[in-house]
Design goal:
Shape: elongated
Number of helices: 1
């Protein structure tokens, strides 16, 4: 059994059309379809999803990103 999660849009005619690659061919499968309406998410003045920073702040507290010391700048030939 394989579980897939996809987002799709129902047309004005009320018909949902799905094209889902499965990697299977020429066999019968049982399909379970659960329709769950999504709630449009607003964005702030800078285009970020509302609450994005509140949800992600501190996400790397247990595994902080470390920046190694910067390497010296290489000497380049002048442009002529």
């Amino acid at each position: 059994m394989e579980t897939m999660k996809v987002k799709a849009r129902i047309g004005e005619d009320g018909i949902l059309k799905l094209e889902v690659p499965t990697g299977l061919s020429a066999r019968e499968v049982e399909v379970v379809l659960v329709l769950q309406e999504t709630v449009p998410q607003g964005v702030d003045a800078n285009g970020w999803p509302v609450g994005f920073f509140d949800r992600t702040y501190g996400a790397l507290a247990d595994d902080p990103i470390e920046r190694p010391p910067q390497l010296p700048l290489e000497e380049r030939d002048p442009i002529e």
